[in-house]
Description:
Mean pLDDT: 93
Strand content: over 45%
Distance between the termini: 12 Å
Radius of gyration: 14 Å
Strand order of the largest sheet: 2-3-4-9
Structural class: mainly beta
Largest sheet: 4 strands, antiparallel
Number of strands: 11
Oligomer: single chain
Number of domains: 1
Shape: globular
Number of helices: 0
Amino acid sequence: MSAVATSVVAVCPVDILTPDLGVAALVDGDQVALFLLSDGRVFAVQNCDPFSGAQVMSRGITGSRGDEPTIASPVYKQVFSLVTGECLNAQDSEPRPGLSPHLVTYPVTVDNGQVHLHLASCP
């Protein structure tokens, strides 16, 4: 079994992010939604809402389910885990054809004040 190679991409300074609000970034041709939570944790998920197909997750509403940080889609209000991308409440809807009901998540680190995404790359 081979290890998955990753590349690290600097996205933005962490101090331009507003706690509990999202921002969209174009990273290697993909739209990513970044979230700085009020506790200082930073998360990144795909910006595409799988239920509407619109690039709007960065405009979603942050919240939590117990200790699990979440993002609610601004379109149809599905709720997703910011940790795993799992859809926690599909609102009795199905995702757009060809789209997973779950969000892609990206590992994030903050180093020297810069937000870095860790992207999987093909071996």
